[in-house]
Design brief:
4 helices, about 0% strand, globular
Length: about 90
């Protein structure tokens, strides 16, 4: 799998940014790069998908916590593989 950019970098926010500001940053990027606004622009479509993926993680409190602790490994792939608490 290709190296993914840091989700905070993708959305252009700091790690300390609150949920509302993350949502606002995502919406701005989504509007700018939406395929309907940029027909035929593969780069805009890539940025749109990247922003959506970043927001799917950072917009969810549990996923964001796992991402902050484990990076992409905490939110990618197999579910249930990283929770060793008894």
């Amino acid at each position: 799998m290709a190296d993914k950019r840091d989700y905070y970098e993708v959305l252009g926010v700091e790690r300390s940014t609150d949920a509302e500001a993350i949502k606002k940053a995502y919406r701005k990027l989504a509007l700018e790069n939406h395929p309907d606004r940029n027909p035929g622009d593969a780069e805009a479509e890539r940025r749109f998908k990247e922003a959506a993926e970043a927001y799917a993680v950072l917009g969810d409190g549990d996923k964001r916590q796992r991402y902050d602790q484990f990076g992409h490994a905490g939110v990618d792939g197999a579910q249930g593989g990283g929770n060793f608490h008894s």
